[in-house]
Amino acid sequence: MILKAMSSCLEKLRLTFPRLYFTTDDDVINMMSVIRSPQHFIPTARKCFPGLETMRFELPTDFPKSTNVTLDYQLNSM
Question: What predicted TM-score, i.e. pTM, was given to this entire model?
Answer without folding.
Answer: 0.59
